[in-house]
Amino acid sequence: MSPSTAAPATPGPAGPGATTPMVEVRGLTQRFATAGGTVTALDGVDLAVERGRFVSLIGPSGCGKSTLLRVVADLITPTSGQVLVGGRSAAAARREQDYGIAFQSAGLLEWRTVARNVELPLELHGVGRRERRARALELLQLVGLGDVAGARPSQLSGGMQQRVAIARALAESPPLLLMDEPFGALDEMTRERLQDELLGIAAAAGTTVLFVTHSIPEAVYLSDRVVVMSARPGRIAAVVDVDLPRGTGTDVREAPEFFARVTDVREALRGAPVRAGASA
Amino acid sequence: MRRLAAPLAVAVLFLAAWQALVVLGRVASYVLPSPLAIVAALAQVWTPVLEAARASGANALVGLVAGSLLALVAAALAARVRVLDHVLTPLAAASGAMPIVALAPIFATMFGATSSLPRRLVVTLVVFLPVFVNALRGLRQVDPVHAELMRSYAAGGWATTRVVRLPGALPHVFTGLRLAASTSVIAAVVAEYFGGLQDGLGSRITSAASNSAYPRAWAYVTAACALGLLFYAAALALERAATPWRRAPVVR
Fold first, then answer.
1. Distance, CA of A73 to CA of A90 (rounded, Å)
2. Single pTM value for the model
3. pLDDT at res. A247
4. Based on CB atoms within 10 Å of each CB, which residue in A132, A225, B227, B243 is the most buried?
């Protein structure tokens, strides 16, 4: 294992329920066979995400951050290594619906109404019609889309579609939320608004979030911890702990600590050694 | 209605130019009858035109439904079972390469001159390819995000088919059906040129032409066009009814 690989990091605060980490990845290696030979997407990755934490994966394109997320989601089977989600195997966690997932593309089913898109996971898992409709409307209220429940996805803007996708990911109140650049295609204003909404929702429900992004400010703003990855083969280059005064909005976005952590992450991305911990 | 205004205006201008060309240019009626002469002939043979259109329309409809159903079943099988894909796709391509002109007389001889079956078989064969190709393409194309989403839900093959694959394939299926709808009428009419039962538009066109009754022949041709348009419009209406999400107005 390379010395630059960060250890699973300092254990989280031993609060109530903080027994096993929500996500635990050990010695993960992922290779893909391509026309030009074998590509190593991830090489010996260790990662632990404590319960209730918001952790971002950041790195240049091709660093395997999306691959790592997909392995945790059991959408890809790792070449080698161990992945535990909520203490059980990733496959079992997927079958038991331990996580909700959202992608860069909202991926709504265009032939379903907004409400029926949010209902989709509930419908597939046998929740009754009335109950799942009530839950969908509740979630749409939560993401500020209570008035478009009957609309078609194609009638909505990109930001609204992404809100619907988040509502859908939250439908079964999963303890873990996996997000792959969900705000990547949105304009800056919409993006900041959705970031605040996501923080509020995750904090209220105590949801653990694993969040892939290529935006440094986004990672710093949202996260308790930013995991910086290096490209090809994907390795964890550094871990930056973020300890901003919580609360949301411009106060935090313009705080000196915020810019300090942004600098830390940027330097880590460039390969400079990071002042460890940085628990200011 | 407003969308129809421009094409209608063009059609009226075209017909007026045609009329002027025939009248002012003294074109002989066996070369090209004027639109008004065709309308007059149409009025004269209105009842037989309707009967012939009904006969050809029935053949086209039966063949269209049979060919489409066969094509949909074949596409569903080919999308699901790889071996069948390798077998069915070349066969479908071959069916598309088969010329109607070659098949129609053979079928007419096989099933006799009193049966409508030969013409319906010709239509079935002609309809098969466009519906099969488009339906298969639709069934194969699953948005990768949808595929990942369904896997994250631990949804099985049938649930994925029902929730994602089939609705996603509908627009493609209807593209095939729309193509097939007007083709089915052409095939039904053309198949009549090569013998068999003489009760449809195609046989009326040939017999009118062989009697030098050109305006009457054109009257039947006009009816064949109208029938084809009717089939196309019906397929379009069905498509819109089945895929309402494709025309929803934008909220903001």
1. 6
2. 0.77
3. 61
4. B227
Please name the residues in contact with A40: beta carbons below 8 A apart, sequence gap of 6 or more: A29, A30, A31, A232, A233, A234
Residue A137: HSE in the Cβ half-sphere, 13 Å Cα cutoff:
7
The CATH code of the domain that includes B79 is 1.10.3720.10
User: Would you say residue B3 lies in a domain?
Assistant: no
Partner residue opposite B164 with nearest CB, options A94, A109, A156? A109
Any residues with CB less than 8 A from the CB of A217 and at least 6 apart, and which?
A253, A258, A262
Asked if A152 and B183 count as a contact pair (C-beta separation under 8 A), the reply is no
A158 vs A187, A212, B250, CA distance in Å?
9, 19, 12
Chain A residues within 8 A of B252 when measuring between CB atoms: 156-157, 160
Please give the share of chain B, as a percent, with pLDDT higher than 90: 29
The dihedral sign for the CA sequence A152, A161, A186, A255: positive
Q: Give the residue extent of every domain in chain A.
A: 1-98+174-273, 107-173
Measured CA distances, B27 to A128, B33, B35 (Å): 74, 8, 12
DSSP 3-state of B184: helix
CA separation for the pair B157, B155 (Å, rounded): 7
The verdict on a CB contact (< 8 Å) between A151 and B167 is no
Q: Given an 8 Å threshold on Cβ–Cβ distance, is B159 in contact with A124? A: yes
Contact criterion met (CB below 8 Å) for B139 and B124? no
Q: Tokens 């969040």, residue?
A: A211
For the domain bounded by A1-98+174-273, which CATH number is listed? 3.40.50.300
Q: Do A48 and A97 meet the contact criterion of CB atoms below 8 Å apart?
A: no
Q: Which of B163, B173, B245, B246 to mutate to test the interface with A (most CBs of A within 10 A)?
A: B245
pLDDT tens digits for B151-190? 999 888 888 888 998 898 999 999 999 999 989 999 898 8
What is d(CA A222, CA A242) in angstroms, rounded to the nearest whole number?
A: 9
- Listed as ranges, residues in chain A with pLDDT below 70 are 1-18, 246-250, 272-280
In chain B, the number of structural domains is: 1
